């Protein structure tokens, strides 16, 4: 009797009375609630809404699928691909993809059939894997017990009832004897399971606005396994797919490979409207295609969190942009002595001068680059390689620089003067960050404070000396208290924040947010 009353009171769906309050709202408001849960990455709550009633399932499912993250699990990614194959309309609702694999995996056996079928739809033969390193019974048991993946992944990829496994209909490695793995050529699915599944997933999500691709073991150095499937699709006339809404693209790896723009040319060629590219890391175009063009003319935000870029390589990238507004380059690589050498600070400034009338943000940290003349990974900037002037950058508002990219004349030397910053900074500067600096940085800042009228927009200054074992050497730089006091008083009198490194209080703080505190 109670259940009958619930159904009568809830004509819009079959959910419990607890959903009545939400269902009484206009559908537009319900969509906003779902979008907020999606933006907060609260997919479990969103999945619960999908199960609450038929109406909520209809509204919330598309929000649930608007974001997907593989969370390092190839099975989770393959399961998501299967869902897109079975329900293509959900692929159109995906707005954000984060594709990553934490370690090397063969393609899960139960997913091989639909992966190869999906590839064939786009004209690709990815082949069948030749050998599996799985115990099929253990795999089935693990899937049934939830050993692989997590409930969030199952909620996101299985909003409808599905069978848990297709192993009975899949490939059985005992059907035939394989004398040796070398006797049969390995297929693309054997060699590049992540790249294959990732490209097919991208191809089925044409409306994505943000794409992040990170793998632990991708063979970037020689071009093997590159995103050539998407590249081939982009070369067709007309292309069978496009990524016209993709505005943010980030890529990287965790296996110290020399990843480059060429490796992901397929994504870039299909997405002419990319505005932001973050690479972690990025290297010159590879040896197998050193002159490959970089098609990023609409990119305005370009950030390299690590890698090794020569002056020629960086120029090829920066010259491809029509109007660059944000640039970041933090050098980092375990490869020592790469040829050609890393672009020097002065070369970087000269290359960026192509965008002197549009660049608003410049962040350069070359502290870990190798100085070939000394064979060391730290030391003062070599004379002639430092940045001297940014006066021509008429729109530059934020300038962040490390001590190995700027050279302050040493106190007591014949060439000692304190006009380096005064002669360098443009009038438009608002935020100045100096880290891992020489002790002479404080005196140069004091000289700058004597001409603050020349920098009317300056509102924040960050100062940090070289730390123990920092890029300038093993000794810590401690500024004189008297100099810091002068700077503190002068900046305070003009309403300018004067900051130093703060304490890390939150283990989950973003790498891009460095804690600071007042001097």
Automatic annotation (TrEMBL):
Domain of life: Eukaryota
Residue numbers spanned by region Disordered: 145-184
CDD domains: F-box_SF
SUPFAM superfamilies the UniProt entry points to: RNI-like
Composition skew (Basic and acidic residues), residue ranges: 159-173
Biased composition (Acidic residues): 145-158, 174-184
InterPro entries, per database record: LRR_dom_sf
Record's protein name: F-box domain-containing protein
Organism, scientific name: Orbilia blumenaviensis
